[in-house]
Amino acid sequence: AAGQSVAMVERGMIGGTCINVACIPTKTLVNSARLLKTMRRAADFGITGAESPAVAVDLLRHRKEDVVGTMVAGQRKSFLASGMDLVIGEAKFIADRTVEVALDGGGTRTIRGTHVVINTGMVPSLPPIDGLAGANVQTSESILRLQELPASMVVLGGGYIGAEYASMLNLMGVRVTVVQRGAHLLGREDPDVAAAVAEAFTRDGIEVRLGVEATRVTRAAGGTVTVELSDGGTVSAQDILVALGREPVTAGLGLEKTGVGLSARGFVAVDEHLRTTADGVWAAGDVAGS
After folding, report:
1. Which pTM value belongs to this model?
2. What's the CATH code of the domain at 35?
3. What distance in Å separates the CA atoms of residue 144 and residue 161, rounded to the nearest whole number?
């Protein structure tokens, strides 16, 4: 719109986190879970024969992929119609305001701009809990690709991501235990709101363990996951979802080639105008902590 020549480099998720692995796919699944809950109460509305609906995971996944795919296609069409140069690949700085792109189809391309905007987003965080890295755990992104529902699931983290998945999985028939380090669920919400959610979870059969955290995670040969807790207790389930926050994507960007600094929490440091510590380099969105 400003008449600038623009090249946008995208690693593969056109449309970003929300469309591909967050808001859109999760709300699509939540909608299915809500419908499932309503169907189980069909008799309350004078309708019989719908009280025992079955969950078809492959159909759920295909519907989610169709919704996401439609929105991704729309984003791609808009990008191309704008006249920008859409480059699919992975970029890293090699010099001042200069990036080298490992192209998705092979080969490399070097791009230099008067201005460069870093907008690489965030990914699920895997804290250094003993045994966690080797336990083949689920994250808020990998769980969207589940081939089948487990009989039971331990959810580490009672924030909005963990709570949403706990509720959804429970509605789909999974026995869920939530492990939350804080004194209540949804730490960013008012205590009365968090208490109401905890009460609803308990009423719906979700076990909530507050004030404890995982100290060790092991997966047995048969697949069962056991989580050792800070209070000396344990929780076992068929699978485990780690929902303990997200971290900015800065590794591998070659920021050291540009003088771009990071904040104490690992985000790209920016001022009130989103300028980084390097001339001509800006950062926006999750990677900048905004």
Report:
1. 0.93
2. 3.50.50.60
3. 13
